[in-house]
């Protein structure tokens, strides 16, 4: 490349001849050279800009075309997605600890009408009334012809009813698919399961929502689409639940009781193996909530959770155990239990106005002395007593996974004067549910470490807090064993299973205050086997009377204890517990086998 | 050379077009088949749920208890009792198995009174 010279000799000489400055020529040439360079650079940059612009134009055209295609075509699900089959049922099943089905879903149909498309409303109304006895033909015809364009007729139809409605053959009758909650075991565990009904309803689907029990408490879990294929596994055992229900039902009839409840709990894990409350109901056809009268009379009332009453003498072991834990007494310390104990205007008496004189702590429990327990309570003092009961969970609602549990709070006196300390030490003055009692006894049976009751199967047991030393827990269990061998619960002995427990008899409170003289709430709180307690059983009968003898018996020892013993005799083998010492074989059974 | 290249390209193009056409239809039929099978799986799942529910319904404890009571004559079933857990020592021993005759008995050494000699023939 030949560059233009900056100082061309011809022009320089010319300029010199004219007397001009030759440097001007050089500057001009420099300027021209710089301009040429600039023009070249600009041309290159412009070319690049055009290319870049073209690329952007292409990219935006593609996007625009794609948007146009998407906007103009009909929407369609991607066919290749294979995940849609996994979730068919919207609500996960509920199974017991062995995987037996407790609640599942069934596909059924709902019936609705488009009256304006109906060809012959009068005939349809007449035929529908023939299929469904609760429908009125005239009423239906009036509603079909009043100009509305849509109306619901039935929420659930059986397959036979669907066929019958099909046979009417009118285009104005339409079906919507429905998923229905089904409880195949009927009344079994009704209070745990609760029930379900429809929430938001549309033509193509309806939301199934829990209305009570675990269905409502764990509604979010049951409806979680990610967990729909995994059944919810409860800690209940259907076989044991059935056996307990059968015996409790029979016991309730024999003892002429108005209601009954039984709780069987694993003492180490807190899992509730069976929870029965009688009378019960069918969750497939859940009765409406009572609008009048005492809610406790409704079969919907879950006595195990909502039956918040004074629990009576079953509390005495807590006073004795705490007094021993604090080192105030030991098992054999003698306590002055002279009855009646006068405290201000109150007179604390014994059952049937007995007077036991001076008793050892062991005998206070075995003979169920109110005055002795009151003395232990006074030694402990109100604050420590409250703290102890609180650590066992008696001051809060139970953490059980039932919607009723959170609402049934124990009734605690607002103030805690010494008279409350006295009455609480023998189970009066504060009220709690049988489930609270089960948790309290489980803490003793578990060697003095609290357990959290649950209705769900546990793989890992949450660590409890130690409230009693192992030695005190052991002594307490031995004392409870004494109640069965020598005390008020002598009917509770079950050969081979070393039942330990405490009876409790409390008068039923009247609505306006005061107590019924002849209506008792009888509780037996038991654990077995005493040498190594594995299970805690709470049985409560409401207003029982044993009329087998010459005079009616209303105490727990005569009514609840035999029922509880029968439950243990039936259930312990089902739980896989071997008798502590093998029993002599029954000659009848041996001969037959 | 050039005409050959031209013909070759045209043939390749036609082959590829034929291949794409077939692939398109194969894909569509696979999608239809998959959809049909998904529907079938959904139906089978629904049926399975229903059968599980029916199985649970037929095996509900109330019904089984009634059936046991009805059929007590044929299958005398009673609730499990604590005394059915027994020590092994309490079990009756099985009767001794009958002797196996693997060779003919030699009855000759029997004496007149029918008393066997010292040596056992078995």
Care to describe what's here?
The complex is a heterodimer of chains A (593) and B (122). Chain A is α+β, with helices and mostly antiparallel strands. Chain A has 20 helices and 18 strands. In chain A, the strands form 6 sheets. In chain A, strands 1, 2, 3, 4 and 7 form a 5-stranded mixed sheet that branches. In chain A, strands 9-8-18-17-16 form a 5-stranded antiparallel sheet, with helices on both faces. Chain A has a two-stranded antiparallel ribbon with strand order 5-6. Chain B is mainly alpha-helical. Chain B is built from 2 helices and no strands. The longest helix of chain B has 57 residues, at 2-58. The N and C termini of chain B lie far apart (101 Å). At the A-B interface, strand 2, helix 9 and helix 19 of A face helix 1 and helix 2 of B.
What is the straight-line distance between the termini of chain B?
A: 101 Å
Biggest sheet descriptor of chain A? 5 strands, mixed
The overall strand count of chain A is 18
Write the H/E string of chain B, N to C.
HH
Q: Level of helix content of chain B? A: 40-55%
How far is the N terminus from the C terminus of chain A? Answer: 121 Å
Outline type of chain B: elongated
Low-pLDDT residue spans of chain A: 83-87
Total beta-strand segments of chain B: 0
> Structural class from helices and strands of chain A?
alpha+beta
What's the tally of helices of chain A?
20
Radius of gyration of chain B: 40 Å
